[in-house]
Amino acid sequence: MESATDTIAAIATGSGKAGIGVVRISGSLVETIATGITAKALMPRHAHHLSFLDEHGQVVDEGIVIRFVAPHSFTGEDVLELQGHGGPVILDLLLQRVLQLGARVAKPGEFSERAFHNDKLDLAQAEAISDLIESSSVAAARAAVRSMRGEFSAHIELINTELVALRVWLEAAMDFSEEEIDFLAEPQLQQRAVNLIDQFGLLLARAEQGQRLRDGFNVVIAGSTNAGKSSLLNQLAGDDTAIVTNIAGTTRDVLQTDITLQGVPIHITDTAGIRHTEDVVELEGIRRATKAIASADHVMIVLDALTPVMPELPELNAQQVSVVLNKSDLVDRSTLDTLQQQFNSTLHVSAKTGSNMDALADHILKLAGHDQQIEGVYLSRRRHIDAIEVALLSTREAFERLKVNTMPELAAEELRHAQQALEIITGRFDTEDLLGEIFSNFCVGK
Ligand SMILES: Nc1nc2c(ncn2[C@@H]2O[C@H](COP(=O)(O)OP(=O)(O)OP(=O)(O)O)[C@@H](O)[C@H]2O)c(=O)[nH]1
Ligand SMILES: [Mg+2]
Predict the structure, then answer these.
(1) What are the angstrom distances between the C-alpha of 279 and each of 38, 260, 285, 286, 366?
(2) CATH for 132-212+377-440?
């Protein structure tokens, strides 16, 4: 295993040509490398405009050099930033020179991983850096910044502090009391229990909203042939992604397109129309459609308002399905109303005229659980939500036990369990096996 103090280097700016490119170096050899490249003594945290020299003293490039001295740097180690010209060849030359002076190429996310190990940021903050770089909408970027700056972690910490305080109180009460105590009879404790569950609710709402902004929502459009599924996909995407014809059975492949609605990435999948057929290609299309339906977050069944036929779909629960009537331009209002009732349809649209598409977008956002009213969203990952849910469940369990006054030691244990679940998010507890997976998904130089 490499020592944590070996020196790593990477081109920290994106590939391709740009005005400026940065080579970043972190580790114990920073001072040697800085001297080797600039032949100057560098004042920490000062921008020096200098020549970058190769091993023969020839100028490779010139630019700004900044040296950070441990622990006052991003990684918490000695760090050097060489800001040269942003061409791939020149940056590679500079990197090679740095490697020659003893550094090795950094692995993806290794700078952030070092920052985590040196307590410069916790795991949720480190993940937020990667999510900020990857964010696909303004809303996602804003939420990522919030998490990166530690607001998500601070909220977790607030809850954790209360969990610890409750545990301490409980343990002390158990130790010092001879007779049975009615824990929740303590009015103050009852209020604290309510507040804590409220805080959990707020944390979960903000994190779930953030997870949607990060991971998006998968909608599969399904229905009988010719209902207008591909036309609807095209309307939503605003282009001609899918082939549309009046021949039933046009779509055979599963076709996915990504759109963004109010900052939420929506992955929309168009599928082959479902009907009885002998056509081998079409049958394969229907098999693929069925597979896509099974893995969807939501299945939007499209019905042709003129000839509505409910397709035969695999078993799905009611929350996962909604019915949209298409071709509203072909039937009158009262027919639409009747059909809406008959098929329990949420809304009607016309993929041809574009009528009611705003309502469809709202409908999808609602299905995705997007709530514009939620403020202070934290960009989060599935693992965060899972951990919060586990912690909330344990906390509820603890209060239930106290309510019926059985085995307060088990309630204390539940609270400890809740605390540990939350600490997995910030990386304070038992995350060794997670770290490799998390940091390897970062880009190089971060
Ligand atoms: N009048 C009208 N025609 C529509 C509307 N939506 C789709 N169509 C027409 O209906 C026909 C079928 O449309 P598609 O989008 O290919 O239907 P589909 O459900 O994808 O069909 P398959 O891929 O065969 O399952 C085409 O001729 C479309 O132009 C609509 O809202 N109004
Ligand atoms: Mg189609």
Answers:
(1) 71, 36, 10, 10, 37
(2) 1.20.120.430
